[in-house]
């Protein structure tokens, strides 16, 4: 079974490769498929599900290979769910810049509840079958940025029942509790069920 993982993001590629390493699914990435190596799909959807579907369909249709795409974001309750679907785009600059700006917006606010949401979308261009899978991870925003490596908001997000930010937990631990892990576990179960 072959599956094109429709992301150019190296951090996401590493996580997904790790999550699916024992699944028996042959993973392909855009840089391995000339027709999609430089494909950039605008995330114009209003929801995580819409963005994931846009990407999965585009990569599948261009490559002719069943594809999975995901869209992930951080929702902070006191900010009305922001940055949400625009988590990567709400502020230009680096992950550090976005983390700092989010901490500045929260300042000393004690209400720091947040959650990560991932929606993965599978699309098979042969059968025209598509399906979405959702994973969530609740937690809170830290008071400061961790110096540990990680991408996105991993350096400021503390999962519920953990004492440290995601970036300090390491990839193996992260992959047992994360929003992406929850969504991709559902993906694997579905793909094994339909025997793609």
Mean pLDDT: 94
Q: Whole-number radius of gyration?
A: 17 Å
What assembly state would you assign to the polypeptide chains in this entry? single chain
How many DSSP-defined strands?
6
> Strand fraction band?
15-25%
Architecture (CATH level 2) name: Alpha-Beta Complex
Structural class: alpha/beta
How many separate helices? 5
What composes the largest sheet? Answer: 6 strands, mixed
CATH class: Alpha Beta
Q: Give me the side-by-side strand order of the main sheet.
A: 2-1-3-4-5-6
Cα(first) to Cα(last) distance is: 6 Å
Which tags fit this structure?
5 helices, Maf protein, globular, alpha/beta, six-stranded mixed beta sheet, 196 residues, 23% strand
Task: Please summarize what this structure is.
This protein is α/β, with parallel strands linked by helices.
Describe this structure in words.
The chain has 196 residues and is α/β, with parallel strands linked by helices. The chain has one domain (2-194): Maf protein, CATH 3.90.950.10. Helix content is 34%, strand content 23%. The protein contains five helices and six strands, in the order E-H-E-H-E-H-E-E-E-H-H. The protein has helices spanning 10-19, 48-63, 95-106, 166-177, 179-194, and strands at 2-5, 26-28, 67-76, 113-124, 129-141, 157-159. A six-stranded mixed β-sheet has the order 2-1-3-4-5-6. Helix 4 runs parallel beside helix 5 (179-194). It is globular. The model has no long low-confidence stretch (mean pLDDT 94).
